[in-house]
Please model this.
Amino acid sequence: MSDLLEMSSEDLHGILVALITPFTDGGHAVDEKRLEAHITHMIKAGVNGLVPGGTTGEFTAMTMDESKQLLELCVKYAHGQIPVVAGIGALSTKDSVELASHAASAGAAALMVVPPFYDPVNLNQLRELMAEIYNNVGVKYLKDTSGNAPDFTELLFALDHRITAFNGWDTLTFYGLAAGAKGSVWGATNLIPELSMQLWAALSVRGDLKEGRELWRKIWPICKFLESHNYPSAIKTGLELLGQGTGGLRKPFALLTGTPRDELRALLEDAGLKTV
Model:
């Protein structure tokens, strides 16, 4: 799970795309042109927010300076049209606070903070970490990536007076939106932004379960596939299949090849997308 800390008065809602990080060929640097083109596509499709610097964005393979650069570019290319939520993931309080302070100065609307992920922290340590990061801002949202539907249900129906829970598990997106989640942080949206927004409109805006089920029949197989592989690898492979250069992944990870790549191509085509 990740805590979302709000730094502006703007309420977060809807489909927030867990953004990829496009690299130059060979993976030596963030590719600014590819990033701008991708963000422009996301905004044109109607997404409600950008979340760079998370798992989908390969934050563990990036330096502190690159993470800061990525956020600055996302804020620049969003042009104030949609909020940018800065992914904050580090192994120490010092680095987490540094990234959070930079995000505030760079214009991020909120932070998505993942606790240290190599050596787990206990509850008291987590509280101290969050206190140093958010000071007097406060935790308003929670991205639930547990994949546990009963626990997510409790967040939505028993604890909603204390915190607003966003879905963060791909294959639970239909359930989450139908159950009333205010939004979803969704990596698959990199591949299917139009279908993602159609699902949001059907379930969360119009309450049309019939249309939502029809859309989910196209989307769910893609989500299941993504969760069955290295997630950033699968997302970037999908984009490559759709004709969008990504620069690949930084080693030791790589794009999918062989049978998995062919399977993903078929799923994208079954959902009505054109591959190359």
The longest strand covers residues 139-144. The chain has a mean pLDDT of 95.
